[in-house]
Write the structure tokens for this entry.
Amino acid sequence: MFVIGQSYVRRDLHARYGGQTQGGVSTPASYPVILLFTGEQGQQYGYQDGWTDDDAFLFGGEGQSGDMTFTRGNRAILNHAEEGKDLHLFESTRKGMVRYVGQMVCTGYEERLSPDRAGLLRKVFVFELVPVSAFISQVHVDHSLEDDHWDQPLSVLRDRALSLTLNAHDSLARKQSVRYRSGAIRVYVLKRAAGICEGCGQMAPFADCQGMPYLEPHHIRRLTDGGPDHPHWVIALCPVCHRRAHFGEDSRDFNAMLARIVQDIEASLSA
Ligand SMILES: [Zn+2]
Ligand SMILES: [Zn+2]
């Protein structure tokens, strides 16, 4: 979708995807993406975005005066996994131009006190963003690695999948929490599928080397599998359905159909 390190005219991004043309957080309505812009004027009062020693990027929330609130852009960042949206980070280089930093995952946030334009202290949110490459998992779920999850009933896995400690105090704990949740969701969908592809309804085509039916978790809405997920957006597919979902001529319609299937399954499970 975007090339890391490449420069883009910000206006062109909005012409293509929509979203707010100004400010640090842009939330296009018709695409499952959130575009973040760091280094925008006005974001810098008392606080500077940037990389930490742990390879996380600290990104100041939206709102230039008064306490920040979890509304609009800030809420969109916080809930991006639940809403099935990819976070894309850009840095402003010169007027109107931005450079693509990469796809990120929000692993948490901190509240700080910081002076505004007028020098008054106010509450700001600083989001911790980690490159999605830190979380990309293989298509195959290795059963021996997810032992802790496999023994659990669906309801427990579902709770694990939904629990995320975004306000954990250190960065490592937050990353582990995202990985843990991601693992729980992958096991959850495979157990939910019980050996039947949730796309075509056929039995898994073969057993893997641990003797388990081979199916792959697929993220319906985002372009990449891996990273934080939500049970509403993940489906267990046979390899053929999975390829179709990514590379098929009809992938858009196919994913829309998969979304309806998951919706029905989840509704019947929570009924
Ligand atoms: Zn299938
Ligand atoms: Zn996929």
